[in-house]
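User: Let's play a game. I give you a shape written as tokens, and you guess the letters that built it. Ready? Here's round one.
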């Protein structure tokens, strides 16, 4: 195991080799542990899909060949979309460990240089922003997106649509999963257990599940994984028993010939039945979106070695039972379970349905976090529940909104069939969007050979296009539910994005550079008042116009002013020597400061601690500059440090800007609609600056109107 050679036994080589192998062993065990935890989340909606494959079949008298055709469709759908597209292709298209539609969009934007948040770190030596992506020759498609604003907006619209539909899916998955499982109570007790009781029990179960989310995905999944272990073991065993008892030759249906015969024989009804069979693969999008919560290897292990074979055997067993009992297709799952093990399987399936709900809840947290970081969604509270995994997050506001929506879906649309129709519509559309974005990744980033790209497009666009055409017929039968949710979310995202873009455009055209700041400070009417001021703003793109607004109206600026930026990095923790980067800006008493922090760093310190750390770094920086530059007079440096220290003793103030749009006479009707909506969102969302423990008496908020 350790692979120690004879050379390693003598000297440091042995220690280094053993340490390396030990860390590799720890990494392997960690991957297996994550794979175990992944079972509790990644299974997602796949776990309850056997309950909904056959109920939606429009065939009145299905035959043996019909069931063989349906099973063949499910097998190849799971294999091609689940294994090939998502497990083997999509999971490799992560954006710094994140998965999902917006992660693909972020990856494309950064590599095509069309304006998206980059993973940046300020270098303490050069203070230059560095992009982590290597420079490569751009493809024609990338150049087309750079030149065409219409293409860029279309790409953004596609990504937003995918995100909104996935979130809308997050309101449907918990409802359909729990409702379908608890509905199993009605099979043996139909006269006693009413539909209303099933809905009430489902609502209670969901409320408890959402209250557990604050524990974090890893803890919840570790708790749920034994349930999934029991499910992935019990259902294929029952499936195998059913195959042996009812139809041992079921696996001849793996031949695609049965698919051709099925559609030839049933025509339009066969096409409509795809609205039910699509549910066998609906959890794959959640699998991809949960990439931020687990690493790629753990998801692949969990899916390929447990989930996939379990589903194949379960579907095969269910199909074998229905071939011998064709009239039971309206409730095929619970009826194919032997009566001797009915109740244990009912308990396991109910618990597994709860786990299935977890997958889309976690995926929703991930895409919301991505949208907030990329500034495409109003800022909500995002709590990192793991110190080692940046993607494992929890949002209290989103959690409780989802809880209310899920309970409302159950109580208003309690019929599992209507909820199932809504579920298939939105997920199939998200799969098509993912295919489009993955195709762009293959062309512009991976530089995949044209033959493989053509094969990918042909297979998956054809499959998913046919599925979409079938499920769109379900819109009037409950499929409109997620569309309404998605449209509302899309309007919120677009309103926020448009407002942020207009604000950035104004700040870029009205920004203040150092030369302009020097002119303002040279005005005799502007006084340098005693004290130390931390002026918070993004200094990378120039000083915001609110600084000029402040100086012109207050006619003053503190003797020592530090323009401070809080920089979020996609790393767990920032090293102490890189946390605070300071620089002298060339004007007397004016400095810049960047405070860098990762997702596991805590900034909830006392305000005095932050001030003391910045002051220490600034004074050390000035001394280091004087030691390297011969033109610097050490006495002047010490005098400057004394002035900084004196300013601190005279009083510290922290200034933050608060801007708002003013609808001028030339403002168009579009701005009059969207910008007020943005202001409503902005006034009700969380602050962009994390808490620093600054006393309220030291905080000043400066307002300014931006003319639209």
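Assistant: Ready! My guess for every position:
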């Amino acid at each position: 195991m350790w692979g120690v050679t004879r050379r390693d036994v003598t000297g440091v080589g042995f220690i280094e080799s053993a340490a390396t192998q030990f860390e590799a062993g720890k990494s392997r065990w960690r991957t297996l542990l994550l794979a175990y935890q992944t079972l509790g989340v990644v299974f997602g909606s796949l776990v309850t899909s056997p309950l909904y494959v056959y109920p939606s079949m429009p065939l009145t008298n299905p035959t043996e060949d019909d069931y063989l055709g349906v099973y063949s469709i499910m097998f190849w759908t799971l294999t091609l979309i689940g294994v090939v597209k998502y497990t083997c292709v999509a999971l490799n298209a992560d954006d710094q460990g994140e998965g999902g539609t917006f992660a693909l969009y972020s990856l494309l934007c950064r590599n095509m240089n069309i304006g998206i948040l980059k993973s940046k770190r300020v270098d303490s030596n050069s203070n230059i922003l560095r992009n982590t992506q290597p420079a490569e020759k751009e493809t024609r498609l990338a150049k087309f997106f750079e030149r065409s604003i219409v293409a860029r907006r279309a790409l953004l619209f596609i990504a937003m649509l995918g995100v909104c539909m996935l979130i809308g899916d997050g309101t449907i998955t918990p409802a359909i999963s729990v409702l379908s499982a608890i509905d199993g109570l009605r099979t043996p007790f139909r006269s006693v257990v009413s539909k209303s009781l099933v809905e009430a029990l489902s609502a209670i179960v969901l409320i408890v599940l959402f209250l557990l989310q604050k524990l974090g995905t890893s803890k919840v999944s570790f708790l749920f994984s034994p349930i999934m272990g029991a499910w992935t073991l019990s259902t294929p065993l029952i499936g195998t028993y059913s195959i042996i008892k009812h139809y041992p030759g079921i696996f001849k249906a793996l031949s695609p010939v049965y698919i051709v015969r099925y559609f030839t024989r049933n025509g339009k009804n066969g096409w409509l039945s795809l609205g039910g069979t699509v549910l066998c693969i609906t959890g794959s999008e959640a699998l991809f979106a949960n990439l931020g919560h687990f690493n790629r290897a753990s998801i692949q292990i969990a899916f390929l070695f447990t989930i996939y074979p379990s589903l194949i055997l379960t579907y095969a067993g269910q199909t074998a039972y229905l071939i011998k009992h064709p009239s039971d297709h309206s409730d095929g799952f619970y009826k194919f379970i032997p009566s001797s093990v009915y109740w244990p399987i009912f308990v396991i399936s109910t618990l597994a349905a709860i786990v299935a709900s977890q997958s889309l809840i976690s995926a929703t947290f991930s895409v919301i976090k991505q949208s907030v970081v990329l500034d495409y969604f109003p800022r909500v509270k995002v709590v990192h529940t793991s110190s080692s995994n940046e993607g494992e997050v929890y949002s209290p506001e989103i959690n409780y909104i989802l809880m209310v929506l899920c309970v409302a879906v159950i109580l208003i649309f309690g019929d599992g069939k209507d909820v199932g129709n809504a579920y298939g519509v939105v997920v199939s559309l998200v799969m098509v969007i993912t295919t489009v974005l993955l195709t762009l990744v293959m062309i512009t980033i991976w530089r995949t050979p044209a033959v493989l790209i053509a094969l990918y497009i042909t297979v998956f666009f054809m499959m998913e296009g046919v599925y979409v055409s079938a499920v769109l017929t379900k819109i009037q039968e409950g499929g409109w539910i997620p569309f309404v949710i998605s449209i509302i979310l899309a309007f919120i995202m677009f309103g926020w994005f448009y407002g942020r873009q207009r604000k950035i455009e104004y700040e870029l055209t009205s920004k203040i550079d150092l030369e302009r700041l020097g002119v303002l400070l040279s005005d005799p009417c502007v006084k340098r008042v005693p004290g130390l001021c931390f002026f918070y703003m993004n200094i990378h793109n120039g000083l915001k116009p609110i600084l000029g607004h402040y100086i012109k109206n207050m006619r003053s600026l503190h003797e020592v002013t530090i323009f401070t930026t809080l920089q979020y990095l996609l790393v767990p923790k920032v090293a102490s020597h890189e946390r605070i980067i300071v620089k002298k800006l060339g004007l007397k008493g004016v400095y810049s400061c960047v405070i860098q922090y990762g997702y596991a760093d805590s900034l909830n310190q006392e305000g005095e601690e932050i001030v003391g750390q910045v002051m220490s770094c600034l004074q050390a920086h000035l001394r280091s500059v004087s030691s390297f530059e011969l033109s610097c007079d050490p006495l002047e440096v010490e005098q400057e440090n004394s002035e900084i220290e004196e300013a601190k003793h005279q009083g510290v103030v922290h200034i933050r800007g608060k801007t708002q749009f003013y609808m001028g006479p030339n403002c168009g009707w579009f701005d009059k609609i969207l910008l007020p909506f943005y202001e409503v969102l902005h006034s009700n969302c969380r602050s962009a600056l994390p808490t620093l423990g600054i006393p309220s008496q030291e905080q000043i908020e400066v307002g300014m109107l931006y003319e639209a």
